[in-house]
Structures are given as C-alpha cells and as structure tokens.
Amino acid sequence: MRRLFSVLLGALLPAGLALAAEGHHEPLDLTHSTVGYLSIVLFLVAYALVMAEEFTHLRKSKPVILAAGIIWAMIGWVYAHHGLSEMAEDAVRHNLLEYAELMLFLLVAMTYINAMDERRVFDGLRAWLIDKGFGLRKLFWLTGTLAFFISPVADNLTTALLMCAVVLAVGGDNARFVTLACINIVVGANAGGAFSPFGDITTLMVWQKGVVEFWTFFALFVPSAVNFLVPAAIMHFAVPNEQPTTAEEVVVLRPGAFTIMGLFLATIVTAVSFHNFLGLPPVIGMLTGLAYLQFFAYYLKRRAGCCRAGDATPHLEQIGDVSGIDQSDEHDDRHYDIFNKVSRAEWDTLLFFYGVVLCVGGLGFMGYLALASEAMYTQWGPTPANIAVGVLSAIVDNIPVMFAVLTMNPPMHEGQWLLVTMTAGVGGSLLSIGSAAGVALMGQARGKYTFFGHLKWSWAVALGYVASIWVHFLVNGHYFQLPPGG
Length: 486
Prior knowledge:
The protein is mainly alpha-helical. The chain is built from 23 helices and two strands.
C-alpha cells in the first residue's frame, strides 16, 4: 500500500520535487504539478457553476465550498507525504482567520440591516419617495443619488433593492424608464460603496488588511461620484419626461426604528475606534456593537410586556396618516428575538465567501498567485493591472478578484491600492451580471431590466469608469508620491 501511495504521489508531483522538499521550510511549488492543475480546473468548474446560478438555481456557496475542501485535501495529502503537515495546517488556519474576521463583521452589519428592515425603516423611506409624486426624470436622479449615499453604510444589494422597489411602484408600466433607472441604481450603489470601508466587501477586505487607513478611503469620493454622474448625465436625456400617477401609501415605523439606526451608527463608530485608537481588529468593535442591539432587543421585550400588562399601546413612529391601520399584535415585541435577525443574514453569501477565500488561498499557497503577480504587477505595471482588475470584476465576482490581489500583496503606492479598491468596486457596473446589485435587480424587475438592456448602455458606464480613473490620478496624485506600502 505504501509503495502504491508513493507511485501515485510521484505521478502527481513534478520531477525532483520530493528531493527539493527535504529540509524545505518554504511552501512547495505545485504550479507545475498534477495537483496544481487539478486545483485550477476544479476552481474554474466551481466558478462556472456560480456564474450559472440564475439558470441552474444551485446556490453559489455549494460548489465553492466543495472545491475548497478538495483543494486543501490535495494540499494536505502532498504536504503530509513530505512531513510538512504543520506548514499546510498553519496556512489554512491563516486563511480561516481572515475569513472569520470578515464573516463576523458582515454578520453584525447584516443583522442591523435586518433589524431596521423589520422595524420598517426601508419601507418608510420607500413610501416617502412614492408619496412625493416626483416626475420620472427627477425620480431617476433621486433614486440613483440615494443609492450612491446609502450604499456606503448599508450594503449595495439592500440599497439597490430598496430603490428598485420605488422605481417599480412609481413607473413600473414604463419599461424604458425602469431599465434606465435600474442601470443608474446599480452604478450609483456600486460607486457609493467604493469610497467607504463599509460600502462593499472588497473595501472592507482592504481596510481590515491594513493597506489603506479608514479615513483614506474617502479620498475616493470625488472619483466615485464621477463614476456615477457621467453615465447618469448621458442617460438623463433618454429618460421619459413624464409625470406618473401614484397612490398614497401609509407606512408605520415600529417602536425603536430610529433608535436602532442610532445604534448602528454607534456600532460603526465603535469598530473604527477599536481599529484606529486601540489597534484591535474592527470586527471586535462590531461584535461589541451587536451587544448594543441585543440589550435594546431585551428592552423592547420588557417594554412590550409592561405595555400589555397596563393595556397601553406602544408608541408608533409613523409616515403618513395611520387612521384605520391595524395595530394588532401581529408583530408583538413581547416575542422580539434578535437571533431571528441573525438567522435572516445572507448565509449563502457568507458561506460563498468562505469557499472563495479558501479556494484562492489554496491556489496562492501552491504558488499560482505569485505567478499572476509577476505577470500583472511586474510585467504590465500596477496601473494597467489595477484597471484590468476592474474589467475582470464585471465578469467574475469582485470578491475572489480582490482577495487574490490582497494575497499577492504587490508592493504599490497607496494611490494604487486606492485605485484597485475603486476599480474592483465600480467595475462590476459594466455588466448587469458584474455585481450582486445588478443580478438582484434583474430578478426584481424581470423582463424590464435585462442583461442586454444594460449592455446597450455599457458604453456610457465605461466612460464613467475611465473618467473616474482619470479623476483619481488628478485629485489624489499625492498618494502616488508616498513610498510603496507607505
């Protein structure tokens, strides 16, 4: 059996690797081994299934989690044969720690978003917009602008879905308006997320990695605004200049809606303070902020119990006239459970992120990311490489692309790190399938906002992409004067 194992391993590894591994304290180069080639093929197949999710209805987390397990199993097998199991174990633990920090950070943020959604904060904003009776052109600009400014705090997916609901409620019978407004929302949400550490998973990864400081991200505000404004100004003239008819909608905010919004802001401040002043990972501050929400949930339950005992009606924060609104105990806060909000987090996305981090980490441990870094950042140069990252993120999800760049960790000026942060965030707007916001809106506005409808205006989005890069070099030129990594 041992002889058979040695024969199989010899077939999987390149010639001379076993000899080179003796006394070896660096990771083995598996880039030209059968194990390496199998891992590449496995990752590509898994990612093809991810991209086909809309047609197969197979959750995107499933193939990448399986691929991650198999890739690391093959790595572990090879390293165990060479007596280097501890090296492989340390590597996978490092990747797992990186994932855990990001996952827990996102989990807290998602829990707050779900709590605000349950308190009808987003329904209230939607009702207010509908009730104002804006014309289609004004609504086009308003929804896009709100998407730009809300996505730095809420995730771009939630922001896009909220704004699209407004568009469909007001102008849903006008397919041309819905298409243009949805494109504008996707571009606005992705651009807004690019200048905030909380706006997108990619910016969060860059911040937590420590290559860009918290306040430095806001240097991308002007380039990100240009990325949104250029295509919006072009599409403005194609938006129908009509006044739609709207029906009044009344939304009652549930008790504590504004308090939860304030607690979310306090949580963000806590996370930033833990990182900037205490030198601790931001996730520790976020988890501390989750305790704020847990204690407030306890207060809501106690308050609801006292109100019912005294036959009193809890205070309702309202938008519009609430006369005739059913205020029954359908949402009785006596049974308010914060863990219901935790359970409603986007677990498929969080587990997909796990699979991506472990897959890309495994390929990097084999040596493939070093080869890619040499080709892109040494032969091409940082600027063309970072622009290409943005274009690639329109086809492949920006999470594995950005994680690969961070794993490569090429020596770059801070201005280049800002550039790749922006391009990875806004590059997904080039195609409707390039971001979670675009994919979600194709489902929400099915038949009106489509892949080809977005593609028709991709040239305008591309002009915004190019303009934002040019403006970044123009207004943030001093960040390119610092030494690489400084």
